[in-house]
Amino acid sequence: MSMFLGIDLGTGSCKAAVLDGEGRVCGAGQGTYPAGEGPRRWNEQPPEALLEGMVQASRQALMAARVSARQIEAVSVGGAMHSLLVLDGSERPLTGVITWADGRGAHQAGQYRGTPQGVALYQRTGCPVHGMYPLYKILWLRDEQPGVFAQAARYVTAKEYVLHALTGEWVVDYSIAAGHGLMDTHTLRWDAEALALAGLREEQFSPLAPPQYLLKLKDTPLVAQAGLLPGTPLVLGCSDAVNSSLGAGAVLPNRATLMVGTSGALRVVARRPILHPRGKNWCYAIDSNHWLVGGAINNGGVALDWLRGVFSRAGGAKVTFDAVAALAGEVPPGAGGVLCLPFFAGERSPNWNLNARGVFFGLALEHGPAHLARALLEGVAFRFRSLAEMLAEVGCEPAEIRASGGFIYSPLWLEIMASVLNRQLFLPEWGETSSWGAAAWAMIGMGAVADLESAGQLVQVNGQVAPDPAQVPVYDHLYALYTRLYENLLPSFEDVARFQQSTER
Questions:
Q1: What is the pLDDT along the chain (505 residues), one digit of tens a residue?
Q2: d(CA 352, CA 478)
Q3: Measuring CA to CA, which of 155, 416, 422, 492 is 20 to 30 A from 98?
Q4: Are both 208 and 110 inside the same structural domain?
Q5: Where's the Carbohydrate kinase FGGY C-terminal domain (predicted)?
Q6: How many domains would you assign to the chain?
Q7: What pairing do the DSSP bridges indicate for beta strands 255-260 and 400-404?
Q8: Are residues 422 and 375 located together in one domain of the fold?
């Protein structure tokens, strides 16, 4: 029986899944690497660590599935969006892999946000003006590290770097390239005006290709270490965001994927580019017939991890995620009136405010760690309510929401999310949707399934979570307060961000 291997290069780990021809998961694996490090507001990964994580995940998945390399009909690789690795003329790295969480481009993006040029960029590329996008990180390099900028012969992403190591080819799929701020989301070509803005040339970027584009694994020690055979077809595939939606079965226009991992996103697959009149959503091309439309937040699981770290340091012992969730369950909905604005890493959609900062509001002497924990889970859910409102504003309100990401393993967080949104959440059978989606592209590329929609129909729903009618009015009231609080704090966010940036020098 033919098997298909999907590899998902996430921000903090690499996950892999082996599917059979019916889309059933036969085995899975995971490799780890640093999520990113560097001076404040920097976030870089060593590129070689990505290769090590990929090898580990691939071998584990093959062993778990009890399949040989000869049984793998095709491989596909997905990757996190918005990364940037700068290479010199000998294809040696001049930087680490700069991740989406790196904030160095904030000042450069601020120079264009709200300007006619910035609006035009958004309308062409589908990328709001924000320092997360590689365009603005390249502008930062031009301004702050001119030596690196002058030596740069090629700009690639983490996925491209791994693909090149596996196949010897430089190529980038539309969905990954669409997250640069440098590709025209309408024509599916590199945008000449955006390139000129940064003093870049098209030949410094990989050729663009659709997700079904076929490559072959080359004969190298890396391929052998991954447990694979040279000559095995590699289907180019898509970004982890597209793969997550595919793995959740949310690739029909009336379905959305709600994902909470390190970050978070709410997205739909549309049949045409859809842009918000005020630039709130992003719109990333998948192929010539599909676009990923939605918004992402910086602070998903990373916010919970921050609080877990605070509790661990305060108590002198490691506190687990489950322990934080259990604490949150000790207090009723509304966290005793404590609100959390979880902007610990700035924010993306729908406000696109890198200067937003984390806030706990409403604290009194009777409040304790449990109130902080619940308020944080509720605060992240409020961010998704903002994203849902944004999608409704552009006519993309879904009939069904599929949940994915690590938060699906927390019954309390699922209940909070469903009640804040007042929507039922449907849970896919396989929780690691991005690795499933990557493997599904291998199936599509080899003709085992006809197309994107057909692959999505293979996904089975394993459960659902309904909103609690008693909690809905509580969260309606607090969300209105939460929204007012954010608006009132906007000037203070700017002030404190300037102060924090001044202390970096």
A1: 799 999 999 988 999 999 999 999 999 999 998 877 666 678 999 999 999 999 999 999 999 999 999 999 999 999 999 999 999 999 999 999 999 989 899 999 999 999 999 999 999 999 999 999 999 999 999 999 999 999 999 999 999 999 999 999 999 999 999 999 999 999 999 999 999 999 999 999 999 999 999 999 999 999 999 999 999 999 999 999 999 999 999 998 789 999 998 899 999 999 999 999 999 999 999 999 999 999 999 999 999 999 999 999 998 889 999 999 999 999 999 999 999 999 999 999 999 998 999 999 999 999 999 999 999 999 999 999 999 999 999 999 999 999 999 899 999 999 999 999 999 999 999 989 999 999 999 999 999 999 999 999 999 999 999 999 999 999 999 999 999 999 999 999 999 999 988 887 5
A2: 22
A3: 492
A4: yes
A5: 258-445
A6: 3
A7: parallel
A8: no
In a domain, 262, yes or no: yes
Using an 8 Å Cβ cutoff, are 261 and 435 in contact?
no
Is position 242 within any domain? no
Residue type for position 11: T
- Would you mind telling me the total number of residues written for the chain in this entry? 505
Q: State pTM to two decimals.
A: 0.95
- Other beta carbons within 10 angstroms of residue 192's beta carbon come to 13
Report the C-alpha gap between 46 and 55 in whole angstroms: 15
- Which residues are paired to 84 by β-bridges? 98
CA angle 99, 103, 105 (to 5 degrees): 100
Q: Which domain holds residue 411?
A: 249-299+396-465
| Pair of tokens at residue 403 | 């949940």
Q: At what angle do helices 369-393 and 321-328 cross, to 10 degrees?
A: 90
243 is a domain residue: no
Structure token digits, residue 355: 């200067």
Q: What HEC string does 296-361 produce?
A: EECCCHHHHHHHHHHHHHHHCCCCCHHHHHHHHCCCCCCHHHCEEECCECECCCCCCCCCCCCEEE
Q: Is residue 244 part of a domain?
A: no
Read off the DSSP letter of residue 112: T
- Degrees to nearest 5, angle at CA 357 with 351 and 363: 115
Q: Which two tokens stand for residue 123?
A: 């309308």
- For residue 182, give the nearest of 288, 105, 82 by alpha carbon: 82
